[in-house]
Amino acid sequence: MKDDFGLPYIGTGDLLRKHKDDGTELGREAGGYMEKGDLVPDGLVIRMILEEVEEKGDDGFLLDGYPRSAGQAEALADALEENGRHLTAALLIEADDETVIRRLSGRRQCIKSGHLYHVDFDPPKNEDGYCDIDGTRLFQREDDKPDTIRKRLATYHDKTEPLIDYYEERGLLRRFDGTREPNVVHGHVRATLATLRLEERL
Ligand SMILES: [Zn+2]
Questions:
Q1: Which parts of the chain sit beneath pLDDT 50?
Q2: How many whole angstroms from 116 Cα to the centroid of ligand 1?
Q3: How far does residue 29's CA lie from ligand 1's centre (Å)?
Q4: pTM value?
Q5: Distance from the alpha carbon of residue 72 to the mean position of ligand 1, in angstroms
Q6: pLDDT, tens digit, 9 for 90 and up, residues 122-135
Q7: How close is the Cα of 147 to the center of ligand 1, in Å?
Q8: Rounded distance from Cα 12 to ligand 1 centre (Å)
Q9: Contact call for residues 62 and 2 (beta carbons, < 8 A)
Q10: CA 131 – ligand 1 centroid, Å
């Protein structure tokens, strides 16, 4: 989507890492919470998002990994509004829990650079268990182990699923069948975004 539309991608995980690595003031503040094992407060994450939006998002932006609860959605909407911005759509890619578990538990990542593979859908071409690009070993992230995935799904159903109603009520929700082939889902999302962009410019 980033390449299709030239939209900046704002992933909150990447954003936190970037701020920490660059040693920014926001990064140091966030690091303090993370070292204690606490969640980074919403206000801090939203300040990072707004900074990106201001810097790169004149013509729109893609937000990934945030918000994850109705409270976060409201805080984000307020913050955007104060800056004269708003969300155009919330994309819901739907898949049942078993499909999610099968897909995530097959994910592998290389030790050196985090290049991603999948044991079924995108295995390494050179040697099993090793990265094609830098030759380092692949491992399964703690996040992608079946037990952890089940816990993440429980949190999703409890905290994040209410966002479906939240965005539906505001007319922003767009649904996609995430059990289809990746290129099919990609095509559907792309068509929807293209339409939304046209409407925004009319
Ligand atoms: Zn690699």
A1: none
A2: 8
A3: 30
A4: 0.81
A5: 34
A6: 999 999 999 999 99
A7: 25
A8: 22
A9: yes
A10: 5
Burial class (CB in 10 A: 0-12, 13-18, 19+), 54: exposed
Q: Please state whether beta strands 116-118 and 107-110 pair in parallel, antiparallel, or not at all (unpaired).
A: antiparallel
How confident is the model over 78-123, as pLDDT tens digits?
999 999 999 999 999 999 999 999 999 999 999 999 999 999 989 9
CB 3 within 8 A of CB 11: no
Q: How many residues does the chain have?
A: 202
What's the rounded Cα separation, in Å, for the pair 69 and 158?
9
Please, where are the H alpha helices in the chain?
2-5, 12-22, 25-35, 42-56, 70-82, 97-105, 146-155, 162-169, 182-201
Q: How far is the CA of 138 from the centre of ligand 1 (A)?
A: 8
Pairwise CA distance, residues 95 & 162, whole Å: 16
How far, in Å, from the CA of 2 to the mean position of ligand 1?
22
